Amino acid sequence: MINKLSSVNAAYTFSLDHIIHLFEISLTSAKYPTLHQDTVSQDFRLINIIDNATKFIFESICSSLFECDRPLLAFLLTIQINRELKIIDETQWRLFIAGMQMLVSNKFAHSFTTNSNNPFSDKKITASAWNFIC
Length: 134
Hints:
With about 130 residues, the chain is mainly α. It has helices at about 15-30, 40-60, 70-85, 90-100, 100-105, 125-134.
């Protein structure tokens, strides 16, 4: 995801060596559990490594970005994490990116039940859009 920042601004190009170095630093600074053999402790360590790496890489990359582009990095990172965790599925992501236009050519457009109680029909919300919202 970090390599996609160069499409925002050509100055946002980070070498793989730099990213690996940041990851290695974040690994060494992650907290160790008190019991190394316990499964709960291993899970704690893994979660701690992921959280620490995410925070450390985010802070390091943010310091290289223009102030106006920092919220974009936060948004992209949050979206990517939530997509990986399946909190945001691909249909939701495509709808967010494409908007209601996705429904025009999408096979899901006709699978919604008809809801005639559209209180916004006079305000440019079409029947198919209202049915999708409901």
